[in-house]
Amino acid sequence: MSENMLSIKDKRTGKQYEVPIENGTISAMQLRAIKVDEDDFGIMSYDPGFKNTASTKSTVTYLNGEKGILQYRGYPIEEIAENASFLETAYLILFKKLPNQSELDDFVYQITHHTMLHENTKKFMEGFRYDAHPMGMLVSTLAALSTFYPDAKNINDPESRKLQMFRLLGKTPTIAAYGYRHLMGLPYVYPDNELSFTGNFLSMMFKMTESNYKVHPVLEKALDVLFILHADHEQNCSTTAMRVVGSSNADPFVAAASAASALYGPLHGGANEMVLRMLREIGSVSNIPNHIKRVKAGELRLMGFGHRVYKNYDPRARIIKNIAEQVFDVTGRNPLLDIAVELERIALEDEFFINKKLYPNVDFYSGIIYEAMKLPVDMFPVLFAIGRMAGWLAQWEEGLVDKEQAISRPRQVYLGEKKRAFVPIAQRS
Ligand code: CMC
Is residue 157 within 8 Å of 140, Cβ to Cβ? Predict the structure, then answer.
């Protein structure tokens, strides 16, 4: 008998089952054969929050939370962040290999030439309330793009899929910047094809009356690296939303809107905003011990700490910490950094955090950098979405072409009332 088998003995019936172990998993469907009698549905696994369930096989991102390793298509995140641009990274994530120069040039051309939004999209965005949250604007506008590109429904055509990927990658920064300009009451700035992906985004955000907006190279590089660090993170909440919605064969614009909605939550993409609010609330280094005390008493969570998968230092947090220093050389030091560094130092020495394996995650330092770059907190999850779009799209396509995948439709454990007779309204107490 193969060693890669799990023996399960059902003590209810005395029967023994041999379940194959493949890639460290057992197929949940194999459990269905374990029944007390023919009428029995069979055993299911119960896993709220999918804490121990692999929903897919994937070749996009390797993550080892215990060792703090993150790789895109096998390349360590540290090396990618050091050597590649965001678009080079997006190409790697989408097309499974590092591009050669002509492939990269062509890809950059394609993305650059899909940054414009239809004028009606602009008008659609003008309809939002003056103080609309830019994440709400992003979610709605991504969904609205579905109405402009009905060809996106051809999800089984690889060429059509590629075109929608170019559109989503190219247009997301434009929607993001328009959302910001709307919030600020400023005229929208059209994309500039002379600029890099990230340079163009900064121009659409901050260009005023000057004819040539000069992007600071350090800030451009820092933001580009932040996009790289957020580009994919395997089966997180928003990527799962993208895959789940994509599994119904919905077009990628509405699927991306769902992914962005998932990202909006404070436990996911909204966490860096919460970190910033927390650091402001702490206010000074001397207030840190009291804050830690409240966290330990269970009154609140230390935002930017802890991760479902990382039980070690998030490798992205380490890279971001270094970028922070470079950015502050240009922008001036953000006083919140001192609070963050001290908070991290104290937490990493504290038994409570050590025992629970709580380490800084990607969001702990990113918010401080964004703020130093004059990016308002409401824009933080939007910035996350610009980078993550690459991963959402790669994972969406991977799910679509995977013959083992099916429409996502989990089971439940029903614990409600057993069948009972309907009571007419007059007879109800
Ligand atoms: N501060 C204090 N205690 C914490 C924290 C925290 N930040 N995170 C987890 N814990 C405790 C939690 O109370 C629980 O304790 P106990 O076992 O005594 O009940 C234990 O650690 C395990 O927590 P959990 O909620 O079961 O773990 P999870 O894997 O479900 O949650 C998390 C992961 C990221 C939602 C959580 O760590 C958290 O809320 N962190 C703060 C929010 C945050 O920084 N989110 C950004 C995540 S990284 C970016 C992204 O992926 O979107």
Answer: no
